[in-house]
Amino acid sequence: MIVASFAILAIGLMAAPLHAQVLYGSIVGVVQDASGSAIPAATVTILNKDTNLTQETVSNENGEYTITNLQPGRYDVKVGLQGFREFVKTNVPVTPGQISRVEAKLEIGSVSETVTVESAAQLLQTDKSDLHTELKSKEIINLPLNQYRNYQALINLVPGATPAAFQNAQTDTPGRSLSTNVNGMDRNNNNTRIDGASSVNIWLPHHAGYVAPAETIDTVNIATNNFDAAAGMAGGAAITLVTKSGTNTLKGSAFAFRNQDELNSKAFFDPVKLNSSVQIGGGTVGGPIVKNKLFFFGGWERNDERNSRFDQYTVPTAKMRNGDFSEVLAVNPSFKLYDPATGNPDGSGRTEFPGAVIPGGRLSSVAQKIQALYPLPNNAGTNNGLQNNLFLARSPKAIRDNYDVKLNWNRTASHQVFAKFSTMQANVNDLFYLGVPEVGGGNTKVYVATVGNTWTISPTMVLDGNIGMNKQNQTAQGGDFGTNFGSQTFGLPGTNGPDPRQSGLPYFETGMSTLGNDAGWTPLERHETSYTATTNLTKLFGKHEIRTGFDFIRYQLNHWQPELGSGPRGNFSFSGNLTGASGYDPSSWNSYAGFLMGLDTGYGKSIQYEVMSGRENQYGTFISDRWNASSKLTLNLGLRYEYYPLMSRENRGIEVLDVSTFNVLLGGVGSVPKNNGIKVSKTLFAPRLGAAYRINDKTVFRAGYGQTFDPIPWSRPLRGFYPLTIGYSNSVTNNFDTFQLASGIPEIPLPDLSTGVVKLPPNTTMRWPDQNNVDRGRTQQYNVTVERQLPSDISVSMAYVGTRMDGGYADLNLNYSEPGGGNAGRQLFAQAGTADILQWASFTKRRYNALQVALNRPFKGGL
Question: Comparing 22-36, 577-591, 689-703, 763-777, which segment has the lowest mean pLDDT?
Answer without folding.
Answer: 763-777
